[in-house]
Design brief:
single chain; mainly alpha; 9 helices; 0% strand
Amino acid sequence: MEATPLDRDIVRFRWTALSVVVGSLVAIVGYVALHGWSAFGELAVAATAVFLSKLAIFGGNLQDLRFNPWELGLIAWVIDLWVSCALLAGLASFERLPLAGKALADANLRAGKTLREYPGLRRLAFWGITVLVFLPIPGSGAVTGTLVARMVGLSRVASFSAVAAGAGLAVLTYAAVARFLGNQWERLLTDPLVLGASVCVLVAFVWFAWLRVRRELLRS
């Protein structure tokens, strides 16, 4: 019997998830082989920090930290890939767990609210999810992005790809800004005009971009 589109999507997603798992494990083994098991604790701490907040990427400018902003951004991105894969692979299983079930129910409520607030997500589909995950706004992120992607009817592979793209753009932006500030921090701190102008330009750009995107997302 010929495979249905759903069957093909499941097979493709399983291969995608397997690639993420194998790639992550290879990277971890390589890291431990280079730096020893003692460095694994630092990796775990860094992973926890960027999982809780991507603002931790800016900590890569600290001299006593092993990871630079680009490396912290990569860790944050891989964690988002894992989160998306886990949700897409085991939503039903998570719902039956006591704590995870409640957390997932809350996340579903947030996803539903986001979808009601931005009806254009259904129309824009893939790129709408990518933008939703990319923008640092309430109701965004890998969890909400994955759930909204399934709500609007994207396949598992398309949902994962949209979340991966949005999360990748987000961590690249954080890392690039962190690296720029790391190279320019002395000048910024000693020249208030440069600091003020830089902040104003950044805020203006983000606000203008958000207004344009929000207008599209509000359209049904």
